Amino acid sequence: MSRGGIRGGAPLMNRAFQSWFLVRLAINFAGGVAVLQVILYLVLSRPFAGEYTDVFYALRDLSRLLRPILVVSVLAYVLLASGSTGALCVYGLHKVAGPLYRMERMIEGYMDGTPTGPVSFRHGDPLGPLADAFNGWIGKMRHDRQRWLSRMEEADRFCLLDESTCRAEMERALRDIEADLSRYR
Amino acid sequence: MKNLHRARSRRRIYYIQPRYQGMTALAFAILIAVGGTVFGWRVDRDIGETLRDVSLRGHYPMKTAYEAVRELLAWRLVALWAGVFLAGATIFLLLVRATHRGAGRAIEVFQASAGGDLSTPSRTRGLEEFARFGEQVDAARGETLELLREIREEAASLASGNSPPEEFRLRWDGLKRKIREVAP
C-alpha cells in the first residue's frame, strides 16, 4: 500500500479555506484585543480632578487598583475571544466534521447490509476526495459482484442443454470466480 | 413559490463533533487564556511601575492616566494580538496537517481496497476522529474480506465436483445469494 500523498482528486482543505479561517481567526483575536483596549481606556482615561495632591493619590490608587481591573478586563477578553473562536471552530470546521460523520454512518450502514448509494458532498467540501475514494471501492466491489453473478447465470444457461455440460460449465464458472477472488487478500 | 419558500426556510445543519471542533476550540481557548494571563502579568508590572514613577515625578502635564501609559499599552496589546494569532495560526495549520494526514490515509486505504487489499490495517494517524474512522473502515474491510473468503472457499469446494447433483444445485443457489451480499 502506498504511503505517499493523496493520489488524484482535489486537495483537502485548500488554500482558500485555510486563508478564510486564518483571516477570521485574526479578526476574532483583534476583536478581543479591541474589547480589552476599550475597557482599559475607559478605566484609565478618567480625567484627574482636583489639585496636585489629588492627582498624586489618584495615580497611586490606580497603580494599586490596576490588578483587579486587569483581572476583570482579561477575563472579559478571554471569554469573548474564546466564545467567538469556538463559534468559528463550529462554523468553519463543520465542513470536515459533517462529511466525516456522514461517512461514518455510511460505513455503519454498509456493515449492517443496508444498500449503499454513492456518497456525495457539497461542491468544495474538504472531504470530497474521501467520498470519491469510498465510491471507487464500493463501485469496484459491485462491478466484481455483477461479473461473478453474470458468470454464474451464463453457466446456468447451459442447463438447458444437458446435465453433464451444465455441471462442467458450472464448475468452470466456479473456478473462474475462485481465481478472480484470489486477488482479494 | 412553495419551493422558494421551502428553500428559504430550509435550515442549514452544522455538525458538531466534540472531539474535532470541541478540542480545537479548547486548544484556542487555552491559548487565549495563556495570552491573556501573560498580558495581564506584563501590564500589571509595567503599567503599575509607570504609574508609580509618574506619581513620584511631581509634575503632571497629562490630564488622564491613559496619556501616561498609552504607548506602552498599545505595544502590549499589539504583542498580545500578534502572539495569540501566530500561536493560533500554528495550531490551525497543525490541525490542517493532521486532518490531511488522517483523511489522506483513509483515501489511500479505500484506493488499496479497490485494488484488492482488504487486510492491511489503515493505521490512520493524526486526529483521534480519523483514527476511529480508520478502525471503522478496517472493520468494514475485514467483514468484506471474510465474506469473500467464504465465497471463495465455497466456490473451490463446489468446483472440486464431489457433491451429488441435488446438493450441488442447493449450494450453487446458496453461493449466488452469498455473492449478492457483497457490497449491497
Could you characterize the architecture of this molecule?
The complex is a heterodimer of chains A (185) and B (184). Helix content of chain A is 76%, strand content 0%. By secondary structure, chain A is mainly alpha-helical. In chain A, helix 1 (15-44) runs antiparallel to helix 2 and helix 3 (128-157) packs antiparallel against helix 4 (163-181). The longest helix of chain A is centred in the middle third of the chain and has 61 residues, at 52-112. Chain B is mainly alpha-helical and 184 residues long. Chain B is 79% helix and 0% strand. Chain B starts with a helix and ends with a helix. The chains are: A mainly alpha (185), B mainly alpha (184). Chains A and B meet through helix 1, helix 2, helix 3 and helix 4 of A and helix 2, helix 3, helix 4 and helix 5 of B.
Brief characterization of the structure:
The complex is a heterodimer of chains A (185) and B (184). Chain A is mainly α and 185 residues long.
Biggest beta-sheet profile of chain A = none
Helical content of chain A stands at: over 70%
Please, how many helices of chain B? 5
N-to-C series of helices and strands of chain B: HHHHH
Report the strand count of chain A: 0
Helix residue percentage of chain B: over 70%
Calculate the terminal CA-CA distance of chain A, rounded to whole Å. Answer: 12 Å
The number of helical segments of chain A is 4
The main pleated sheet of chain B reads as:
none
**Unreliable residue stretches of chain A:** 1-9
> Which structural class best describes the helix and strand composition of chain B?
mainly alpha
User: What oligomeric state do these chains adopt?
Assistant: heterodimer
Biggest interface found: A-B, 99 and 92 residues
> What's the end-to-end separation of chain B, in Å?
39 Å
Number of strands of chain B: 0
Strand portion of chain B: under 5%
Low-pLDDT residue intervals, each spanning 5 or more residues of chain B: none
List keywords for this structure.
heterodimer; A: 185 residues; mainly alpha; 76% helix; rod-shaped; disordered N terminus; B: 184 residues; 5 helices
